[in-house]
Amino acid sequence: MFRQLQNIDSAFRHIRTFSLLFLVACTAVSSLAIYHSFRQMKLAQERIYILADGKALEAFSSGRNENIPVEARDHVRSFHEHFFTLDPDEKVIEANIGKALYLADGSARQAYDNLREKGYFTGLISANMSQEIIVDSVTVDTGSYPYPFRCYARQRLIRATSVLMRSLITEGLLRSVSRSDNNPHGFLIERWTTIENQDLFTKSR
Q: Which residue windows are transmembrane per the record (predicted)?
């Protein structure tokens, strides 16, 4: 009788130990499954597909801080391309300058007003001149805020009989603002000034 009770007690302890081990194993497996599910869901949210020419291209999202230098340089480049790419057409000039002014503060508006008062745009139209810009490099210091930048570029003024090449160096500050259709990078150029703008050479066409 006593021996049977010992066997029952031993069997109960074995069952209890097995049940506890089974519970721990189930909890571990469930936790791992939940963790991997959330991880896969997060990775899936960061992955997007872009349809280009009938082909689905995979792209990944990343945090803004990782892209600040790239976006800042492209913002400065876009502003200068809009501001300095001009054709002898008043509507083209207004359209390009309008796009540029969305990317900068009143300092760019003041520069535009000064050029207009001096008759610069009227001269382009009357002489049938086109102006293009070649941005060589843009440096942005992301170690301080607002971010100081400097743009090194060349202007090409195309006349009927000649092409004038000019050097252009500008600088300013970049402040973060909300993104929009008119300002996709979410930066605003402040205190924009021209450091150098001088003739390099002229060649005949």
A: 20-38
